Amino acid sequence: MSLRTRITEDMKTAMKAKDSLTLNVVRNLKSAIKYAAIEKLGAEGELPDTDAILVVRKEIKKRQDSIASYESAARQDLVDVEKAEIAVLEKYLPAAMSA
Question: In Å, how far are 35, 44, 59, 66, 86 from 62, measured between CA atoms?
Fold first, then answer.
């Protein structure tokens, strides 16, 4: 199953389960992938999974940067939200190689 199909299916599942956190993260991810496809290939383009994974990594990096900012401002509530979003995004990355 392609990454794009998996994202769409996960979005449907989150809607049915009324899981707003997952739904928002997946919607934002789908939007970021579509934006990257438009930027790279034009309006009708579709990113291959390898490029889509780069977008996922970029989104995770954004949230890690936000965590650093929130921790320096002592906002643990926002840190927890960002960590939960990272956990959702990490499902779309390939498994890491073992040592």
Answer: 16, 27, 5, 6, 10
pLDDT at 71: 93
pLDDT at 44: 81
pLDDT at 56: 94
Contacts 24+ apart (CB under 8 A), 36-39: none
What is the DSSP secondary structure assignment for residue 91, as one 8-state letter?
T
Contacts of 68 (CB under 8 A, 6+ apart): none
Q: How far apart are CA 56 and CA 76, in angstroms?
A: 24
